[in-house]
Amino acid sequence: MDRAAVFDVDGTLADTNHLHVTAWWEAFRQSGHRVEMWDIHQALGLPSRQLVARLLGDDRDTDGDDAVITAHKVLYATFFDRIAPLERAPDVLRELAESGWKVVLATSAAGDELAALRHAIDADDAITATTSADDVQQGKPAPEPVERALELAGVSADRAVFIGDSVWDMKAATAANVVGVGLLSGGISRADLETAGARAVYRNPADLLEQLGSSPIANIERRRSS
Question: What EC designation does it have (predicted)?
């Protein structure tokens, strides 16, 4: 029976979260908004419009949202050639693929940004499919990105795990009835990830790879064998 390992990308496989914080901070500043970096960091993982709404509030002039979002895209693009994978990120994808897992990426990135991330991770040979912001109506924490990833893999929720670094990732996994595994590499605390639904939390992809045999991923593997 097939199994699917669905991965978020930013902060989970690629060391990009603080680049995003910098780009968002400057985008807000250019539009005349003072937003603290800590608040931006907590909102990472939300779709862009939800992120802007969370940080500027419902009473903002929404006519300015597009300018902030566009500025972030332009500013973040200047980092594309400096994106780096997190420690052993390609290895954990290949280990799972070689063990019979379908590896699917579920990310809010799209277009050139997604291409830059995949280039940096350099593990396309291990990736079965990718779902991006272009493929869903609602982003995380809604379950749709995870559900779409499972559709692409042809795998049921009880045969899947979702690995991510944000509260929104864990909430999306819970809403999709998928086991959530959290990574600290995005900068969110263990307690926050567990409160949001993480079944287990690891430091980074390297730590997850080292402990695969005792992880919730192995539990799904054992259910397959029993």
Answer: 3.-.-.-
Q: Whole-model pTM?
A: 0.96
Q: Which of 57, 78, 99 is the last residue of a domain?
A: 78
3-state secondary structure of 90: helix
CA distance 18 to 16: 6
What pLDDT, in 10s, does the model give residues 159-185?
A: 999 999 999 999 999 999 999 999 999
Instruction: Confirm if 125 and 141 have CB atoms less than 8 A apart.
Output: no
User: By residue range, what is the domain housing residue 194?
Assistant: 3-16+84-225
Interior/surface letters 86-121, b for 16+ CB within 10 angstroms, e for the rest: bebbbebbbbbbeeebbbbbbbbbeeebbebbbebb
d(CA 10, CA 44): 9
Check whether residue 149 and residue 50 sit in a common domain: no
Tokens 């500043």 label which residue? 29
